[in-house]
Amino acid sequence: MKGKGLIGIFIAALFGGIIAVGVSNKIFNNEIRVEERSEPVQFVTSPKIVSSTGSLDFTLAAENTVNSVVHIKTVYEMNDQPQSWFDMFQMPNQRAQSSGSGVIIKDNGYIVTNNHVIEDADEIKVILNNNKSYDAKLIGTDPATDLAILKINEKNLPSVPFGNSDQLKIGEWVLAVGNPFSLTSTVTAGIVSAKGRNINLLEVDPDRKIFPIESFIQTDAAVNPGNSGGALVDTNGNLVGINTAIASRTGSYSGYSFAVPSSIVKKVANDLMEYGEVQRAFIGVSISDLNQEIAEDLGVDDVSGVFVRGLTPGGAAAEVGIESGDIILEVEGTLVNSVASLQEKVSQFRPGDQIEVLVKRNRELKDFKVTLRSSEGSTTLAATFDANRLKSEGAWLEAVPQETLKKLDLSNGVKLSRDEGGRFRRAGIREGFIITKIDKERVEKPKDVDQLLSAKEGGVLIEGTYPDGTKAYYGFGL
């Protein structure tokens, strides 16, 4: 018991300070608060590069990566939520700045970074390693994996090819490349310490349907504040992860850093570039890591696999006959020994994809072909941009079905389905709100919201109704 207690104290001390790798130097004055936070891409593989002396050579990997890692600066509003329409015009404008890193993944200007680097930003600038500066457009975000995609208007940019993090081995050398504080790219080296780490960094938000997927690569490469969104590459210069967090009590590097694996980054990036949102697939099970106690209760000899605690009624797993008490051993031929590893594997697929799942039940092995579904239970992909769905002010807007309008006794309206930029949320408007009027002008379709907001300056009055029938009025600043 004494030994276990010491181990518990050590683990608590080590991971008690897990933080996102953003910068948090804050300066206050009357005007500004400065806070520095921090076609589909394909996998490539190649043999290890070794120098003439037989030792690993990092120079080529560094040379091929530094010009593809960028510095990101953001500006966002710091106003408290106005209490009235009058307050909207009386409160002083406090603006904050934040920064981090990003990685060019396509030569036509697509950049991947962490969501926490650009979250709630009103302005985003990208500075290349040659000090050229560009205004960036936010293409999409995925808070569930802490990833985001930006786009700058430039061509023939140096980009980093995707490597395959599934093939990354513990003990393998990797390089962490960041572009913090506008000091141009910096490179550090270390080894892969572990894979499939769940460090409880990301928060669950059921209202916004955010269910975190954490399966981090842990390394001992030195990563410091400002490196959020930077590249983790192998010795050939292939992208195997996006640096996201460090374990620290001081905010500075203390031996452990964590990166989102490229198996997740590639899928999220492709979805955001094609659809503007992630096409997330679900297997329809509630699961937990298999420990010795559960294994003994089930009468199994080992603790390999993931324990199925329950099923989503009518979900993908239940439909094919997977049962509570089953142990999932493999997904698409890949061993899964933790919740994190199972989530990582399933996250590589889209709704409608069929995957092979191997389970153990009463000491027998059973194969199942599972057709994955979306969170709404659908096997079809979400629509791309069209007349009934578009993005404005960093938020997704959708047409409201006639039966919903009739139920709420409305004749018109557009639904705020998801607020990635956070501008509506900062005004107090929650997702699901149906916008009926902007400055007394009727809103009939998503395009109306975009046109009305883009044509105005200062503040506007937004009226609408929530799905429960509650009417609300908000002052929205432009």
Helix-strand makeup class: alpha+beta
Residue windows where pLDDT falls under 50 for at least 5 positions: 9-16, 22-38, 45-54, 83-90
What fraction, in percent, of the residue positions are helical? 10-25%
Mean pLDDT: 82
Largest sheet: 9 strands, mixed
Separation of the first and last Cα atoms? 60 Å
Using the CA coordinates, give the radius of gyration.
24 Å
Please tell me what the overall shape is: globular
Number of helices: 11
Q: Could you tell me the strand content as a percent range?
A: 25-35%
- Total strand count, please? 29
Question: What would you note in describing this structure?
Answer:
The chain has 478 residues and is an alpha+beta fold. It is built from eleven helices and 29 strands.
Walk me through the topology.
Elements: H1 2-15, E1 18-20, E2 26-28, E3 32-35, H2 59-65, E4 69-77, H3 87-90, E5 95-104, E6 110-113, H4 115-118, E7 123-127, E8 133-135, E9 137-142, E10 147-151, E11 173-178, E12 186-197, E13 216-219, E14 231-233, E15 239-247, E16 257-261, H5 262-275, E17 285-289, H6 292-298, E18 306-311, H7 316-320, E19 327-331, E20 334-335, H8 339-346, E21 354-361, E22 364-371, E23 389-392, E24 395-399, H9 402-407, E25 414-419, H10 423-426, E26 434-438, E27 441-442, H11 446-454, E28 459-465, E29 471-477
